[in-house]
Amino acid sequence: MLMTRLLSFENWKRWLWSIVRFVLIAGLSFVILYPILQKIATAIKHKSDLYSPIVVWIPENFTLENFKNAISIMDYWETLLNTFLLSSTTTILTTASCALAGYAFARLSFKGSKLLFAGVILTILVPPTTILIPIYMNLKDFTLMGIIPLLTGDSVNLLNSYWPFILTSITANSLKAGLYIFIFRQFFRGIPKVIEEAAYIDGAGVGKTFLRIMLPNAIPAIVTVMLFSFVWQWNDSFYTTTYLTSSNVMATQLSSLPHNLSIQLEGGVATNKDPFYMSMVQDTGILLAILPLIIIYLFVQRYFVESIERSGIVG
Amino acid sequence: MPKFSLTPKSYEGQKAFWGVIFVLPWLLGFVFFFLIPLLTSLKFSFSSIQASSEGMKITFIGFKNYVEALTVNTNFNRTLVESIINMIVNIPLIVIFSLFLAVLLNQRFFGRTFARGIFFLPVILASGVILNLESTSLVQAVNEQNANSGGLVNAFGSFELERIMIRSGVNETIVAYLTGAVDRIYQIVSQSGVQILIFLAGIQTVSPQLYEAAKMEGATGYEAFWKITFPLVSPLILVNMIYTIIDSFSRSPITELVMTTGFDNSDFGLSSAMAWLYFIAIMLVLVISTYFVSRKVFYQE
To answer: Where does the chain cross the membrane (chain A) (predicted)?
Structure first.
């Protein structure tokens, strides 16, 4: 008798907790999704619906006009292609260079490698703002220690090209690269040493061991780093707006969208500059910019969670 | 001449040799894109820079730039203090909140994959330019106003909560802090995506045997959390704290101030000084908080 009552009490407690948990999770999910839902609702509204007091979520006059405007102002398709190329190039280069450095810091210790790893930590800790201006000036007159002026007679201006991104990602110093090196190092340290030794005894050199044994084992870490690097590069406005001022990349297009929009509206017919309308098109622009990411996320979401669990950041 | 062969013969020597090769790309980048700019920026911060047709004239002026940033510039002090206070206020909230959510998302329930998918969405969305533009979105602001009067967002309203807590005699600062957190829930949720991921990964490495044993001994879920989960993930609290601090760089208003001073007013000296002051402030926060947290952290070995 007592036993059953206890059981039912336990049961009851479990149910209560389930409900509380459900409410919490549903509520917070709503908080997260709210801006996106709102943007969708705004994007499909017609201009007249903006002032209609009865329209909150579902528009009275459904329209795709905002999308058309935003696409034409942002030069969307070209921008999309550019951003995709930029992000994927830097992602691949960064992952490769960070994997090399991470493996070296984890397993191939040499004199001073501890000190250099402290350097990696330093790159994580120093705010990019601190070094931005010298980097900017350096890239404006890029000399590579005076080698380039010797060859061509003048320094090169690397701004407004993709070179800053390529150079920094080849050398594992791009956006948040220190973090990626750290992830790789942690992961490689988790792989048993015995495997390497076995490979060595079987006659594989260090390079071969890395390529044939360690890299295939490091897939979770690679996936994690690639995902983060791609997404952060896509969204990054800090470096892109400094290095690229006139190229069409998502971040620069988004930040100059209000400006371009007002130019276009002023040039057009008597569509006076309505701040609400501008904001509406801007919201649509944001939606368009994150749309590819959301689509990609739908497919890789599973790996996102799985890989970080196995990538040994926590170990 | 085997003596002069390029690759050393011993395994250790070979590893060291390849280690240098592997690190080399990073080292080059480190020197050219980090160390030299860092030192240059330090030098700039102590000098006055005049750009002319022949190039730049750099003259050493000592601490003048720092003095100017701290005493003359109207914005810097306020922005720096605000940005640091904001960070200090947010760190505990984000860390505790993400630990709580990670525990929640680790439990088995219907639709868990879906819920996880939503909670990691901020990792993708809440960064860089999107966040900046979002804060200026007019439609959103107006909609929120409308919704407030309509009662939709009232559910988030912390007014009632505040009254109840003050009446029941909770300290007023704590009440203000908590209700502030409720009001900024979106900001906090959107900044804790990566932290949730890290905690979740950490919780899953905890061996299930420990929980089984605890259950046999009659521990409740609450006790199991405080006696098993919490100590075992406590090193990650440190990790997440540091990550939260690093993550706050990109949205700090200081960045904007430094960029406008540097590029629009072309006062490189002053802007470098500002950037260094910001760096020093961050380091102080980092060192102090790491010191306090790491004393409490439990390490297994």
So the answer is: 15-37, 115-137, 162-183, 214-234, 276-300
